[in-house]
Write a structure and sequence with these properties.
- The chain folds into 2 domains: about 1-230, 3-Layer(aba) Sandwich (Rossmann fold), CATH 3.40.50.300; about 240-300, Alpha-Beta Plaits, CATH 3.30.70.980.
- Helix content is about 40%, strand content about 30%.
- It contains 11 helices and 13 strands.
- The protein is globular and about 70 Å long.
- The model has no long low-confidence stretch (mean pLDDT about 90).
- The structure holds adenosine-5'-triphosphate.
- Adenosine-5'-triphosphate binds next to helix 2.
- GO terms for molecular function: ATP binding; ATP hydrolysis activity.
- It comes from Paenibacillus algicola.
- Keywords: ATP-binding, Nucleotide-binding, Transport.
- This is ABC superfamily ATP binding cassette transporter ABC protein.
Length: about 325
């Protein structure tokens, strides 16, 4: 409890948990990460996004002290991963695609086994994790018979056995159906709020992370090409608003609003509005011509912003 209070206090104070300063990493002569600088605030959920091979896993291995940088400096919990890797790893949880669970053991047996291995066995902790991840009812079932979603949840429970302050997740929603994705996002948000866990999620499936991350890092070919919260990225990259309206409007009505528009189907138009604060004006004009069934902004989602970031990056 004291630990949780301490964590939420540190979140309020905006303390940096991870600091990366001009990190460079090479494998042989090949530069894998170049000039990566960033800090992660205590209690944040961070999306580390980028295509395959961008360097996401390499960055996480550096933060865990499994490998060392060739240039720049980094600290995690104020410690140097190259020298104090053991202490950092004892305060972190890592969940990779191959979660390392024993398929012929039950969930309870897996958690019991790993908590002994990590010297943190607590029956109460195991039960509370099974409850938290809605696995208690299936605790005696062999993991081999679990669904993908249950296995992913158990993998996170395993990584949380020692109450880590920082959790690294590799593609936590990969292979899940829409219900599974929604559940996973809910579990992670709850974990973040109730245990104060700082979470870094690596993924290349952007739209699934839209509702959960406080901040995003876009990595491309080893470089951090952009970072920020969704509103910050929107302000920098969204430009004109694309608004799809379903209504009883005719093309003539739509053109009479004075906004550029494209007809997508019967009564369905995509308007281009120069700025967000002009949207109400457009909607008033639409309503004065007929009935309005729906209006949706289609170019402010994370994926559109990401493509815009990359487009501008490649222009330079
Ligand atoms: N130990 C290694 N030795 C040589 N090259 C490596 C090593 N580890 C990673 N690389 C290379 O570094 C680049 C970045 O790999 P990394 O695994 O960090 O990317 P990633 O963004 O995590 O990709 P993915 O989304 O596929 O997991 C890749 O080109 C990879 O082949």
């Amino acid at each position: 409890m004291e630990r949780l209070q301490e964590r939420s206090q540190r979140k309020k104070e905006g303390i940096a948990l991870i600091q990366l300063n001009q990190i460079q990493k090479k494998f042989g002569e090949r530069v894998i990460l170049e000039d990566v600088s960033y800090y992660v605030q205590q209690g944040d959920i961070v999306g580390l996004l980028g295509p395959n091979g961008a360097g996401k896993t390499t960055l996480i291995r550096l933060m865990n002290g499994v490998i060392s940088p060739d240039g720049g400096t980094l600290s995690v919990f104020g410690l140097n991963p190259a020298q104090q890797g053991n202490e950092i790893r004892s305060r972190c949880g890592v969940v990779t695609e191959s979660a390392g669970l024993y398929q012929d053991m039950s969930a309870r047996e897996n958690l019991d086994f790993f908590s002994r291995l990590y010297s943190c066995r607590s029956a109460a902790r195991i039960e509370s994790l099974l409850e938290r991840f809605q696995l208690a009812k299936h605790g005696e079932k062999k993991v081999g018979a679990y669904s993908t979603g249950m296995k992913k949840r158990l993998a996170i429970a395993k990584a949380m056995l020692h109450e880590p302050e920082l959790l690294f997740l590799d593609e936590p929603t990969n292979g899940l159906d829409p219900d599974g994705i929604r559940d996973m996002i809910g579990f992670l948000r709850q974990l973040n709020q109730e245990e104060g866990t700082t979470i870094m999620i690596c993924s290349h499936v952007l739209y699934q992370l839209e509702d959960i991350c406080d901040t995003y890092l876009f990595l491309d070919q080893g470089r951090l090409i952009e970072s920020g919260t969704l509103p910050e990225l929107e302000a920098r990259y969204a430009g004109a608003v694309k608004l799809v309206v379903e209504s009883t409007l005719t093309l003539k009505d739509a053109l009479s609003t004075g906004f550029a528009c494209e007809e997508l189907g019967q009564g369905k138009f995509m308007f281009t509005v120069p700025a967000r604060d002009e949207v109400p004006d457009l909607l008033r004009k639409v309503l004065s011509c007929g009935e309005l069934y729906s209006a949706e902004i289609v170019n402010r989602d994370l994926e559109s912003l990401y493509f815009e970031v990359r487009r501008r990056q490649h222009e330079h």
